[in-house]
């Protein structure tokens, strides 16, 4: 089989399909060689795991204002009775599916940031998720907030890793992108691996576009040397988040030099039959996240890990006619792990002082990013999230 040139690579999109990945640095578990043994992550380095809940998770059904009559009045068929809720204090409680997170709360390892949103909210899934992932509420930009962190901090292609076949917007920088690892990917055939080997060979006659392909494939080869010994647990596929976090845990324990991991769980667009659907989804999140943190709790690197969970928007306060809720605005953000300052942060939004039926945000999401960039990734947040942002006290010293 002849080697594939970069020109053929640019023209022939079938190569990307064969890789099973859309992204600048594509990797598959079965073909990679471990690099953690040669350049392990320095002890004490903060590790951020970003969990995206796609679809617009209903924050009011997650952190439940069970003692507020306005909650029960707005959702007469959808509201949880006080005795069904996992009480956090005398006003708020967690969805009954979040028993593991309730335990983290008791252990002071769960921070709940209330009322998180951005100015002039957008009800479109695509635009709102774009805003959260680029950290640019005022105008569209091509780079994500983690991508800009990559641009600012070097050129090692494994500093950020997305678990999944397609890189999210947050992972795309102007010069660098995160690596993409697909837990479900099959190994490349020997013929295809040989054919792709030509992509890493430099050529002075390359156009800028071909040069980018060369750089991307060279990055992929570095990634290949990092992750070869790590294998996904395919037996836990019933919960799609579990194998993602299993891989992250293996990477962390192996000392892989990755500072940011991105994982995701979808299905939160609950316009109908919300109670049942959301309980199932939150149960999957709870099961996977608590198992992940428990797995790391006895490992020396576990104390360095912070998991950040967010969704593109919350839901409207009032239930709709289909026992669901429609696209809203503000919602809670979770931070979990040993380094977090457990408890509530931010002001609880009013259920009666609304903006056309929507919650008014009390915390700007860029302040959350500011703190994890500053305190977890030890970097200057200003070039990434802009000026005027501040830490919120979400993490301990």
Report the portion of residues in β strands. 5-15%
Kindly provide the name of the CATH class: Alpha Beta
The total domain count is 1
* Overall spatial form: globular
Q: What's the CATH architecture name?
A: 3-Layer(aba) Sandwich
Keywords:
single chain, 397 residues, alpha/beta, Alkaline Phosphatase, subunit A, ten-stranded mixed sheet, three-stranded antiparallel sheet, 12 helices, 13 strands, 31% helix, 14% strand, globular, disordered N terminus, DUF1501 domain-containing protein, DUF1501, TAT_signal, TAT_signal_bac_arc
Give a nutshell description of this structure.
InterPro entries: DUF1501, TAT_signal, TAT_signal_bac_arc. The protein is an alpha/beta fold and 397 residues long.
Give an account of the 3D structure.
The chain is of the alpha/beta class and 397 residues long. The chain has a single domain (21-186, 225-385), classed as 3-Layer(aba) Sandwich (Alkaline Phosphatase, subunit A). Helix 9 (241-254) packs parallel to helix 10. A hairpin with a 5-residue loop joins strand 4 (86-87) and strand 5. It is built from twelve helices and 13 strands. The radius of gyration is 22 Å and the shape is globular. Helices cover 31% and strands 14% of the residues.
């Amino acid at each position: 089989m002849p080697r594939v040139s970069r020109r053929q690579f640019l023209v022939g999109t079938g190569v990307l399909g064969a890789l099973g990945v859309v992204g600048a640095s594509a990797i598959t578990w079965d073909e990679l060689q471990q690099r953690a043994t040669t350049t392990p992550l320095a002890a004490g380095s903060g590790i951020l795991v970003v969990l995206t809940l796609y679809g617009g998770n209903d924050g009011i059904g997650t952190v439940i204002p069970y003692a507020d009559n306005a909650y029960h009045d707005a959702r007469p068929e959808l509201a949880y009775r006080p005795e069904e809720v996992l009480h956090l204090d005398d006003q708020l409680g967690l969805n009954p599916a979040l028993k593991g997170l309730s335990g983290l709360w008791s252990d002071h390892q769960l921070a709940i940031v209330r009322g998180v949103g951005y100015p002039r909210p957008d009800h479109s899934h695509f635009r709102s998720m774009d805003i959260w992932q680029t950290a640019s509420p005022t105008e569209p930009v091509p780079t994500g907030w983690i991508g800009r962190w990559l641009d600012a901090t070097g050129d090692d292609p494994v500093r950020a890793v997305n678990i999944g076949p397609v890189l999210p917007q947050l992972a795309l920088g102007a010069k660098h992108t995160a690596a993409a690892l697909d837990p479900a990917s099959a190994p490349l055939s020997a013929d295809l691996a040989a054919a792709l080997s030509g992509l890493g060979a430099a050529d002075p006659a390359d156009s800028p576009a071909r040069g980018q392909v060369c750089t991307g494939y060279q990055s992929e080869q570095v990634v290949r040397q990092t992750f070869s010994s790590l294998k996904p647990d395919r037996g836990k596929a019933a919960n799609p988040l579990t194998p993602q976090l299993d891989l992250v845990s293996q990477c962390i324990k192996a000392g892989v030099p990755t500072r940011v991991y991105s994982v995701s769980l979808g299905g939160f667009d609950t316009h109908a039959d919300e109670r049942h659907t959301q309980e199932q989804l939150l149960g999957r999140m709870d099961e996977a996240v608590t198992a992940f943190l428990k797995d790391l709790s006895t490992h020396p690197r576990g104390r360095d890990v912070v998991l950040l969970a967010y969704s593109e928007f919350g839901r409207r306060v009032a239930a709709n006619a289909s026992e669901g809720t429609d696209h809203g605005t503000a919602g809670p953000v979770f931070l979990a792990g040993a380094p977090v300052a457990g408890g509530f942060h931010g002001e609880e939004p009013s259920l009666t002082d609304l903006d056309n039926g929507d919650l008014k945000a009390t915390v700007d999401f860029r302040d959350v990013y500011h703190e994890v960039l500053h305190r977890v990734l030890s970097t200057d947040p200003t070039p990434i999230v802009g000026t005027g942002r501040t830490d919120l006290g979400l993490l301990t010293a």
